[in-house]
Structures are given as structure tokens and as C-alpha cells.
From TrEMBL:
HAMAP family: Iojap_RsfS. The gene is rsfS. This is Ribosomal silencing factor RsfS. One of its GO terms (cellular component) is cytoplasm. Belongs to the Iojap/RsfS family. Interacts with ribosomal protein uL14 (rplN). It is found in: Cytoplasm. GO terms for biological process: cytosolic ribosome assembly; negative regulation of ribosome biogenesis; negative regulation of translation. Keywords: Cytoplasm, Repressor, Translation regulation. It comes from Thermocrinis albus (strain DSM 14484 / JCM 11386 / HI 11/12). Functions as a ribosomal silencing factor. Interacts with ribosomal protein uL14 (rplN), blocking formation of intersubunit bridge B8. Prevents association of the 30S and 50S ribosomal subunits and the formation of functional ribosomes, thus repressing translation. One of its GO terms (molecular function) is ribosomal large subunit binding.
């Protein structure tokens, strides 16, 4: 799991995602074990991040269960079952504030 989290973070960094945070939510929700949260600077950037992430993960044999939010690209969710990647535009990230909602989650450090 650690290697995959590091790979996801690197892929997002490669395409200039900002403020990447990894939360261990395994003790707080049954949705996933980890949330990866990142900020995009526009809808086009958000879509590019999601497309690149999915494309590169598929090259590794990892297919997302589903991807949501590509139409408006305010909040794109890439569901990898154990890991959910949330790609937000800045104002949407501030509005939904998942870091506050899951404030008791442990921040995952490399």
C-alpha cells in the first residue's frame, strides 16, 4: 500500500497538483483506508490530473473501480477501493474541507 500511495503522490506532483495530503481514514470510515486529496488550478487541470493518474495506474495493471466528477471537474473522485483520490479545485476543497471532516485521521507521511 505504501508504494502505491507514493506512486499516486508522485503522479499528481508530476502534473503540478498542489497541497497533496494523504489521510489514513481506515479507523473512521469503511469507504477506504486512505484518502489522497489534491488541488487543481482549473477544471482542465483537474481533468488532466485524473486522466493522467488513471492512465498511469492502468499501465501498472490497476484499474479504478470508478471515476466521478469529470463533467464539471470541481471535485473529481478516483476510487481505487482501498484508496480514494479526491482532486478538487481550490474553492471546492475549501468548501468541503475533507481535512477538517476527517481531522482525527492520521496524516500519512512518507
Amino acid at each position: 500500500m505504501k508504494d502505491l500511495l507514493l506512486k499516486i503522490k508522485k503522479l499528481l506532483e508530476d502534473k503540478k497538483a498542489e497541497d497533496i495530503v494523504i489521510l489514513d481514514v481506515s479507523s473512521l470510515t469503511n469507504l477506504a483506508d486512505y484518502f489522497v486529496i489534491a488541488t487543481a488550478n482549473s477544471p482542465t487541470h483537474a481533468r488532466a490530473l485524473a486522466d493522467y493518474l488513471v492512465e498511469e495506474l492502468e499501465k501498472m495493471g490497476i484499474r479504478p473501480d470508478h471515476v466521478e466528477g469529470l463533467d464539471y471537474a470541481n471535485w473529481i473522485l478516483v476510487d481505487l477501493i482501498d484508496i480514494i483520490v479526491h482532486i478538487f479545485q481550490k474553492e471546492w476543497r475549501e468548501y468541503y474541507d475533507l481535512e477538517w471532516l476527517y481531522s482525527t485521521a492520521k496524516r500519512w507521511e512518507e
